[in-house]
Design goal:
Its cofactor is FAD. It holds the Pfam family DAO. Helix content is about 25%, strand content about 30%. By secondary structure, the protein is an alpha/beta fold. The strands form 2 sheets. Strands 3, 4, 5, 6, 11, 12, 13, 14, 15, 16 and 19 form an 11-stranded mixed beta sheet that branches. Strands 1, 2, 7, 8, 9, 10, 17 and 18 form an 8-stranded mixed beta sheet that branches. A hairpin with an 8-residue loop joins strand 17 (about 335-340) and strand 18 (about 350-355). Helix 1 crosses helix 9. It is globular, with a radius of gyration of 21 Å. The protein binds flavin-adenine dinucleotide (FAD). Flavin-adenine dinucleotide binds near residues 19, 46, 210, 214 and 358.
C-alpha cells in the first residue's frame, strides 16, 4: 500500500456540507487538514446538493436554536470572506393544527432563545404573504424573522474554496475503506479503495448516508442510521401569481406541521416554480438506489395540502413539474450523532452523522464543533449530550420526545 505525502493534523472523510465546513474550520485554526471524498466533489449522490435548503430557528427540541443562531453568524462570516452570497434572508413561517404538540413546542422555544415570534390565527394571516397562505380552520401559524434559503451546492463549494485558501488539501475519488491506529507514528492511518494510505493525528467521519457501513467496517459498531431516498417536488405557479411567491414580495420559507409534514421555500431557483415537498422517504441502500419509482407516496399527499392551504388557483396542484432525488440519514429520534467513536480509537476518531433531513443549515456550527473536538478534544459553548452515541444503548429509540415524529418512513417504494 502506498503511503501518501504529508502527515495531517486532521483527516476529514466525506465532503458534503459537514466535512467541507470541518476542513475549513480545521484549516482556519492553522492546522493541516485533508478532506477525502469518495465521488466527484459536488456530486448529486448524497445529501448536500441541489438548489435550496431552509434555514430556520424554530424547533420543537430546545437544543437546536443556539446551533442555528451560531450558524447564521458563521454563514455571514464565510460569505464575507469569499465575497459572494449563498444565503438569501427571508422570514420563516410555521403552521399547523393549533393542537399539534410539535408546533406548540416550537413556539414555546422561541422566547427562551430570544427569537422574535408572531403568532397568527386565520384572520390575522389574511393580509400577509400577499394573501396566498390560507390557514384551514383550527390552524395557527408563527412567523419569525430568522429564516432564509441557502444554495447547497454553491455553499459546499464555498466552504471547500475557503478551506483550500486556508491551506487544506482536498482529494476526490478517494473512497476510505479502513482506519487504524498508526502505532509507529502515534496517530491514525486511513486507507482508500485505490490503495493509498494517509496518516494523521485525528480523523473526523462525515460520510452522511454511508456512516453505518463505514463505522461498522472500521470498528464493528452498528450505528442506527437509516438512509432514506427522498423526493423534492417543484410545482408550477399559475400565470399572474409568480411574484406573490417571491422573496421580494415577502414570501417566507415554511413548514407545515402534522400529517403530512410539508415544507417549502419561496420561488427562486426556477422561475415560475415553487418547491413544496413532504418530509419523508423510503429506506434504501445508498449504493443501490431505485431512481425510477417510489415517489408517489411522497408526492400525492402534497396535492391536497396545496389545495387546502394555498390560495385557490395560485399553484397548479395536478402534479409536480420537476422532481429531484436526495438522501436523508435518519436516526431513530431524528437527532444528530456527534461524538468520539471510542473503543480502540478513543478520542482520535470523531463521528458526525444522522443529520435526519435537517442538518444543512447547521453545517457551519457543526464544522466548528467537529474541528474543536478533533483539535482540542472538547467543545466550548455547546451542550452535546443529546447527540451522544451511547444514548441508543440506553434506549434504542434515543432521546425521549414529548411530541410526534415529523419524518414519514415509507417502506414500499
Ligand atoms: C431533499 C432534502 C431536503 C433537505 N432540506 C433541508 C433543509 O431545508 N434544511 C436543512 O437544514 N437541511 C435539509 N436537509 C438535510 C441536509 O441536506 C443534510 O442534513 C446534510 O446535507 C447532510 O450533510 P452530510 O455532509 O452529513 O452528508 P452528505 O452531503 O451526504 O456528505 C457525505 C459525503 O461523504 C462521502 N462519502 C461517503 N462514504 C465515503 C467514504 N467511504 N470515503 C470518502 N467519502 C465518503 C459521500 O460521497 C458524501 O459526499 C435536506 C436534505 C434533503 C435530502
Amino acid at each position: 500500500m502506498e503511503v501518501c505525502g504529508d502527515w495531517f493534523d486532521v483527516i476529514v472523510v466525506g465532503a458534503g456540507i459537514m466535512g467541507s465546513c470541518t476542513a475549513y474550520e480545521v484549516a482556519k485554526r492553522g492546522h493541516k487538514a485533508l478532506l477525502l471524498e469518495k465521488f466527484d466533489f459536488l456530486h448529486h449522490l448524497g445529501s448536500s446538493h441541489g438548489e435550496s435548503r431552509t434555514i430556520r430557528a424554530t424547533y420543537p427540541e430546545d437544543y437546536y436554536a443556539s446551533m442555528v443562531l451560531e450558524s447564521y453568524r458563521l454563514w455571514e462570516e464565510a460569505q464575507s470572506e469569499i465575497g459572494y452570497r449563498v444565503l438569501t434572508r427571508t422570514s420563516h413561517f410555521d403552521m399547523g393544527p393549533a393542537a399539534n404538540k410539535s408546533l406548540q413546542c416550537a413556539i414555546a422555544n422561541c422566547e427562551p432563545n430570544s427569537i422574535n415570534a408572531r403568532i397568527l390565527d386565520r384572520s390575522q394571516l389574511h393580509d400577509m404573504f400577499s394573501g396566498v397562505i390560507q390557514l384551514p380552520e383550527q390552524w395557527i401559524g408563527v412567523e419569525t424573522d430568522v429564516g432564509g434559503v441557502i444554495k447547497p451546492t454553491k455553499a459546499v463549494a464555498m466552504f471547500q474554496a475557503l478551506a483550500i485558501r486556508r491551506g487544506a488539501v482536498l482529494r476526490d475519488h478517494m473512497e476510505v475503506k479502513d482506519i487504524g491506529r498508526d502505532e509507529a507514528g502515534g496517530g491514525i492511518w486511513v486507507s482508500t479503495a485505490s490503495g493509498e494510505r494517509f496518516r494523521g493525528r485525528k480523523c473526523v467521519l462525515t460520510v452522511g448516508a454511508w456512516m453505518r457501513k463505514l463505522v461498522k467496517e472500521v470498528s464493528g459498531l452498528d450505528l442506527p442510521i437509516q438512509p432514506l431516498h427522498t423526493t423534492v417536488c417543484y410545482w408550477k405557479i399559475k400565470e399572474g401569481h409568480e411574484d406573490e411567491f417571491s422573496p421580494k414580495a415577502g414570501f417566507p420559507t415554511f413548514a407545515s406541521y402534522g400529517e403530512p409534514y410539508v415544507y417549502g421555500t419561496p420561488s427562486m431557483e426556477f422561475p415560475g416554480l415553487i418547491k413544496i415537498a413532504m418530509h419523508g422517504g423510503h429506506p434504501c441502500d445508498p449504493d443501490r438506489r431505485d431512481w425510477a419509482s417510489g415517489s408517489g407516496v411522497l408526492v400525492d399527499p402534497v396535492v391536497p395540502w396545496i389545495e387546502q392551504v394555498l390560495l385557490p388557483g395560485s399553484v397548479e396542484a395536478g402534479k409536480p413539474v420537476m422532481k429531484q432525488a436526495c438522501l436523508y440519514s435518519m436516526t431513530p429520534d431524528g437527532d444528530f450523532i456527534i461524538d468520539f467513536l471510542g473503543g480502540e480509537f478513543g478520542k482520535d476518531v470523531v463521528v458526525a452523522g444522522g443529520f435526519s433531513g435537517h442538518g444543512f443549515k447547521m453545517g457551519p456550527a457543526v464544522g466548528r464543533i467537529l474541528a474543536e473536538m478533533a483539535i482540542d478534544g472538547k467543545v466550548a459553548g455547546f451542550e452535546l449530550k443529546q447527540f451522544r452515541l451511547g444514548r441508543f444503548e440506553e434506549d434504542p429509540k434515543g432521546n425521549a420526545k414529548e411530541f410526534e415524529d415529523q419524518v414519514a418512513f415509507h417502506v414500499n417504494p
